[in-house]
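seq as requested:
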Amino acid sequence: MRERKGFISWKDAGPRKMVDGIEVAPDRVKVYFNLHLDCLSVIDAETGLLYCHAHRVELHDAKFRVQEAGRQRVLREKRKNVHAYVVGKCHDIGEVSKERFREVDNELYEKYSICDCSDKPYDYCEQCVPESSEDFRGGYYNPYKFKTFVDDINKTPIHKSSRVIIRDKTAIGPHYNIFYIPQPKKKRLAWNAGLRYTLKQLRADKELKTKSI
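struct tokens:
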């Protein structure tokens, strides 16, 4: 087992996608918490094969899935099984690195930090740990209480999100952490939206016609 930046490579993982000799992660992946290994399993959504295990995964255009048959099995047997996961575009696997490299003169590169949060109470900020941003909310899944993933605070169902970050037990706190950006609320249109006249205009026209008679 080799661990690097929250990424764990395993011998039983599926074949790697290579482009110009460089390993490329699958376009879409399914992520769930591995009950036996205490980490996240990342599955290639196209092939259904294991890609890797990891401590942190970021997905874009994600959907939260719960297989009801699996949930009912949990309720009957009182034993956990894999029936809930998050699927989406694979954006990043592993921790966000504070150190980056930039070209300064042809083939010469220098190292630089994307942030400076050493003077903060905690050694992280929104740049090096995006899920600490106020844009994210917490979520979780409990098969004994809910049929879907739900928001950590108001318990409303979560079905999809433009950006999701999943962490395992290595995250701060006692729970397996799911961070997501809520979908923007749809604007409710008035009943007369798109009509030529509003009710107020109709009344005004009626008054004008009455006066002209």
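The radius of gyration is 25 Å.
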